[in-house]
Write a structure and sequence with these properties.
By secondary structure, the chain is an alpha+beta fold. It folds into two domains: 222 residues, no CATH class; 203 residues. Helix content is 39%, strand content 17%. The strands form seven sheets. It has a six-stranded antiparallel β-sheet with strand order 6-7-8-1-10-15. It has a four-stranded mixed β-sheet with strand order 3-18-19-20, with helices on one face. The chain has a two-stranded antiparallel ribbon with strand order 2-9. The longest helix has 23 residues.
Length: 496
């Protein structure tokens, strides 16, 4: 039986400053993260000790001629929040990495909490700038001028699952899931005839497999950096998805992947249809608003993205039916039902995904605006509508306003999202991380995904490893934390 899975999503947000003076993106991003950090009770740095971004899952490590540079030397802000998340500057963007979550619904909650955090952080940053300045933050993936930035999913899977099997069985899934993962955008880097496409990211991918994330972007990223026990786990670093605002899209993006990974771990997937050219297929799916483009397979036949998704859904449905030892957990059952519902809608009329999938929701807005004002697809006003869809401000962002009016489907309550701004998930190690930050803000001097570092006035800093993502939950640590009066007592209890 497949092992429990854990997931987190890291999002680079687009940023610009509108005002009387020019502010470059690196400074703007540092202000956004820094002002949010200094407005809180704790200033905890990120622990880079066990990070190896150049280690490749294919069995080697790429040499790096440069010494690692600390964030402080770069002048970049980088901190850990009491909800267990990491908030930092990366590639001139403010980036929010959710805490580890055990299921797709929790991921939606803590991903949405990131939007609220960025909204508040941008507001605080603007107050440090000259009067009349606005810091605008967008949850998107391209500036429309040839630059792209990422939304990366991270799934912890057993190291016993061969990386080659993951690659072979996931490439067709990544290409075809664009039907519901795509956030939509005007234009194309590849084809000037494309007026609107499903994915913001697809045009920027060039190779099937590789280690890079900013150049020669691969559909299958090979970074081997588990942030957990390296003998037991590998982290599948997925860089080909879009930044989603629609909760159903985020939910299915993560929920379907968790299911497919269970099948791969149990070697339960039938022989997967193999795309003849996955990169060309990825581009083609994104450029096809009708969702009917035949994709060439290596056996000379063709299949559409919809047919590939039906294939994966059927395999998952049979898997859970054959292996269920009791009632299916509610989230998995709901993911399967919604997955089937989305594919049924695509088969009938993909435009009817409005309110569930970002590309369809945005396209509906753009079409209405374009027709009302009689604009062509290249008009700047239409491009501004495209961008404003992603604005995180709840009173300005077009998605946010649709959500407030009940015109997009919500899966989680706003009270849950607001609570998640400060509180970590209860059933992963993020709970212990977040609670230690909340209870001992002066003693925790640094944190990473797999460790906390304390300074309790002893001869040396003390590092508490957290290599198992399923340990450190509220159920297993609350009594311990309630039973100590200081960080020093906690360390003594852990080592005694």
């Amino acid at each position: 039986m497949a092992s429990p899975k854990f997931v987190g999503v890291e999002t680079e947000y687009g940023i610009t400053v509108d005002g009387p003076s020019e502010v470059n993106p690196v400074l703007a991003s540092s202000l956004v993260v820094g002002t949010y950090r200094t407005g809180r009770d704790t200033d905890v740095r990120w622990d880079h000790t066990d990070e190896h971004p150049l280690r490749d899952a294919r069995g080697y490590e790429v040499p790096d001629a440069h010494e690692p540079v600390a964030d402080d030397e770069l002048g970049l802000a980088n901190t850990v929040l009491t909800n267990g998340a990491r908030f930092y500057v990366d590639h001139a963007h403010p980036e929010y990495a959710t805490p580890e979550c055990s299921n797709a619904r929790d991921l939606v909650i803590w991903d949405k909490a990131g939007e609220r955090i960025l909204e508040q952080a941008a507001f605080r940053a603007a107050r440090t700038l000259p009067a009349g300045s606005r810091v605008l933050v967008h949850k998107n993936n391209t500036d429309g001028k040839g630059a792209a930035y990422g939304t990366h999913e991270n799934y912890l899977v057993p190291r016993s699952v061969p990386f080659g099997r993951l690659t072979r069985q996931l490439l067709p899934f990544f290409v075809s899931r664009t039907l519901f993962v795509g956030a939509g955008r005007i234009g194309s880097e590849l084809d000037p005839a494309v007026r609107f496409q499903l994915s913001q990211r697809a045009d920027f991918f060039e190779v099937e497999v590789g280690l890079e994330t900013t150049l020669k972007r691969p559909l299958m990223n090979t970074r081997d950096e588990p942030h957990a026990d390296p003998d037991r786990y590998r982290r599948l670093h997925v860089i080909n998805g879009d930044a989603n605002l629609c909760e159903v899209a985020t939910y299915l993006k993560v929920g379907t992947m968790l299911l497919v990974l269970d099948l791969i771990e149990d070697d339960a997937l039938p022989p997967v249809p193999v795309l003849a050219d996955p990169i060309r297929a990825f581009h083609a799916v994104s450029h096809d608003l009708a969702c009917r483009q035949p994709l060439e397979l290596d056996d000379g036949t063709t299949a559409t993205a919809l047919e590939l998704q039906w294939w994966y859904l059927d395999a998952c449905q049979r898997y859970v039916k054959d292996r269920a030892e009791g009632p299916l957990d509610p989230v998995t059952a709901d993911v399967l039902e919604r997955w089937e519902g989305v594919l049924t809608t695509v088969a009938s009329d993909p435009r009817q995904l409005v309110g569930r999938v970002d590309w369809a929701t945005k396209l509906d807005l753009l079409e209405a605006y374009r027709e009302r004002h009689r604009l062509d697809w290249g008009h700047d006003r239409l491009k501004m509508v495209d961008l404003q869809y992603h604005d995180v401000r709840q009173d300005k962002g077009l998605y946010q306003r649709l959500a407030a009016r009940g015109r997009v489907e919500r899966l989680v309550r706003e009270e849950e999202v607001q609570a998640a701004v400060d509180t970590p998930p209860a059933d992963t190690r993020a709970w212990f991380r977040g609670e230690c930050l909340r209870r001992f803000p002066r003693e925790v001097v640094a944190a990473g995904w797999d460790a906390l570092i304390f300074d309790v006035g002893r001869d040396a800093l003390q590092r508490v490893p957290m290599l198992e993502p399923g340990r450190g939950t509220r159920d297993t640590t609350l009594a311990l934390l309630d039973g100590v009066g200081s960080a020093a007592e906690l360390l003594d209890a852990l080592t005694g």
